[in-house]
């Protein structure tokens, strides 16, 4: 865990949709939680189960290297986790387009913008 100030500084330099190449380092409960990804930053990356394929057999496994887009990073330094979404459509849930219409209909307009505490994931 990094200091509160370091988290604020790190988070302040992140942009929605920013692409990171990362390695899946942990899949604790396939089909239930999500996957942890090392993206080379002092805070860990995580892809939520809601964004991954419904078929667990299509989930990335430990050691998988792929590109991930920055989806969210909580401003609260107690929750130092960088939320990611797979850039590869093969690693996204099958109905991702419909899910986006519900969860993040404004996603295209957010890409490239700095993270903003007024925007919830």
TrEMBL record:
Name recorded for this polypeptide: S1 motif domain-containing protein
Top-level taxon of origin: Bacteria
InterPro entries given in the database record: S1_domain (IPR003029)
Annotated ranges, domain S1 motif: 17-49
